[in-house]
Amino acid sequence: MNRQRLRGLVRKEFLQILRDPSAIAIAFVLPVFLLLLFGYGVSLDAHHVPLAVVVDQPTAQTSNFIGGLQQSDFFDPRHYPTIGAARTALMQRQVTGIVWLRGDFSRDMLAGKTAPVAVWVDGVDANNANILLGYLQGMWQNWLQLQADQAGQPLAIPVVAESRIWFNPALRSRDFLVPGLIAVIMTLIGALLTALVVAREWERGTMEALMASPVTMGEILLGKLVPYFVLGMGGMLLSVAMAVWLFAVPLVGSFWLLLACSALFLLVALGMGLLISTLAKNQFVAAQVAVIVTFLPAFILSGFIFDIHSMPAVVQFLTHIVAARYYVAILQTLFLAGNVWPVVLTNSAALALMALIFFGIARRKSRKRLD
Amino acid sequence: MEAPALVLDAVHKRFRQGKQAVEAIKGLSVQVQSGRITGLLGPDGAGKTTLMRLAAALLLPDAGAVRVLGHDSRHEAAAIQRDIGYMPQRFGLYEDLSVQENLALYADLQGLDATQRAARFDELLRLTALGPFGKRRAGDLSGGMKQKLGLACALLRAPRLLLLDEPTVGVDPISRRELWSIIKAMRAQGVTVLVSTAYLDEAELCDDIVLLHRGELLAQQSPEAFYAPLVGHCYSVRHPALRRRQLQEVLRSRAGVVDALVQADGVRVVLQGKQPLAQVGEDWQPVPPRFEDAFVSLLATDGESVAQAGAGVDATPVLQGNAQGIRPAAVSLDLRLRGNDGGEQGTAPVIEVHELRRFFGSFEAVKSVEFSVQRGEVFGLLGANGAGKSTTFRMLCGLLPASSGTLRVAGMDLRTARAAARARIGYVSQRFSLYGNLSVAQNLAFFASAYGLGGARRKARLDWAQREFELTAYLDAGAAELPLGFKQRLALACALMHEPSILFLDEPTSGVDPLARREFWQRINHLAESGVTVMITTHFMDEAEYCDHLVLMSLGEILAFGSPQEIRARVKTAAMPDPSMEDAFIGLIQAHEAQTRRAA
To answer: Which residue range(s) make up the domain with B167?
Structure first.
């Protein structure tokens, strides 16, 4: 390894990054865009859900119950005179659900029978519908409990579920989306950008001239690794800073541990990028391959948005070869739960193994030859 | 005598191309002597680039051995790459980096320390005249300057062996001369040079020539030894009445003629025998042979039968591959018809350009250009790299709007009736816009549809294209796999599908070997004789001789307009009584650039 040659290659790479608008777009603009989008735009929480409320016979009990709905942050109750009108509103998607307190609500309740509350939920978005149902049920139970307490009677429900939410008590989806997004951003810089710039050298014929010089293949590879490692860590620090300061995501675990794990994941991503570039020698193919085998899995199969445990068994099995899966687990643990060593260590071990495999193959595949 | 710098010993090299294995080098044994300039020549697909890459240890031989400066390429690639300078065909300059930064990168890669570096940069920047452009990005340099910078990068550490793969392709004559003076300066410093080229005049600047054909060695000797057997076989023919292109057609179809080429005021002819085949009215003057004559006579016949070097000249009918292209009968019929017209073209101009300007931002790429082209003319647009000829050309084809001025093509104003004008023109771009993964027949059918041909006319034109360009045998072949010469034919057939009255050709012969170029020009001449107006740009000065009129552009202006004879006459001096087209080109442009610089 010759220091002067390596320095020359690294300096060239940095100059190219600074002068190439597309590299800057992928390395800086896209991450910021994704962070803003996921931080502000995408939310998996139910907030102020429009809800139609139909009360057949207003009584003290019904207004008490509706008052509870109104006070909740989750709902935005609207009154409809008849169930027919409410249904029309649901059809037209003006409301997401209907709560119908029938005429016998107060009478049955006071008689100690189960007071019937009818609930309709728009099931087009299944995820949202489930959340909405859960909230409504919880809310209903709380209200019943309150009524029973006031009446000095024990509640007639034999088992009461007492739920507690750990790690993300506020249930803000942003708190787990934004850390997970760091994995996507580092994949973007590590794998996609690296694969593209190496393919560009083949396309423009610069690789042939490099290879005919005394430079070694190890130096060429390292000359690509160093700049994009720096760039990837920069992207990661930017994301962490935006997460903590802009989106107020708590960082419970150690920052230094986060840094170390990120470096490890970045090596895996760079290894994938180099491997792709040894196989795909034009930018179009390199971009296609990088997006399909690195970027999309990091988005979909890493547990960043979609829970891995609720995937079909085959797909769950597949996620084991997605490097981002291990990194997302580390990220979400470090941000929300803290330094949970068993999680961090097992996932880091998986990442280290993948890094070794990818670099091993990339080094073997890249010879200083044109055929 | 010093040991040879490069030795190939019974080398074989195969490549996979789709399902087939192609043997690029077939048992080649060659030695390149130290301290000399060795030219590597041969038609397309001869194996020139493969040989260069083998010498740079970027490819390893399948069989046999390659020894470079005493090192075996299989085991000592690193030692070889330390001592050579290699300039690939598309040299890998980093376009985002400035001239200085490119040089600094290669200085680092070749291990130049800080003290050597300053002196070497100075020397190379002076040699290449790139000094004033140190801060300019490589991507903003002209084609010729890029090549010079690529050469400078390969020369940073004074290599012992310099490998140059077609360094002058797409480069204007001035830059070519500059590149060659650098190459000669390297020889003077004791560097061994191996240079491949498609320009046959450059071969005469070499000490030794390696002539390859289909991966085999045809001959290796000095350029003089190549053409020595042809002394007495070469003549310059003039005719008082016939135009030069017509005379060329007449002579080409005469039995016993190996090659006929328009040159200077007449037609240059190479004969099988030594006796002039003069007919009434013709004036035959003996001329000395040159390398090109030998190249054509060696390669025009099938490679195998002429392997015994110069003997081939007297053997077997030569140029048979070319002669099929045009039916002599049709040509002579055409000539007779024209003879009745008095041999002159119609007088109404087909292309009229008046005060044409084009700005890119504040930069004026084309400055108030004016000319007109008559029907049935071959009209050339010449200029150095960056002279504005490509911009002018694109405006004429309606691909680029003019900033101001009037442009009439086929009687229509391009600013108002662009679509109508386009229906009257055919266009062949530099890279032959063909669909590589469609077959020849599919390409033809697509272009017929694109031009809206249907029914009987469509069938007639498709038949015509297959017949005229002899594509029948290749109909099912993929366009990407065709030999370059056939790609060119197919591109021409597609551009002519709708019987345009004007044909635009943008550097159609760049990178095409001399034999394919001859055939191509034969077709162009034939088209022009049948009344099609041909507008062409080229870097080959010998091709400028085929034009009836040409304009010479420099820095966005027209320097000269006229027939080749008139333009050559403008630089005629006592010291240079018989200037070539290239002399005229260089003389006029240099004078103009100097004048512009003085004025600035």
So the answer is: 6-221
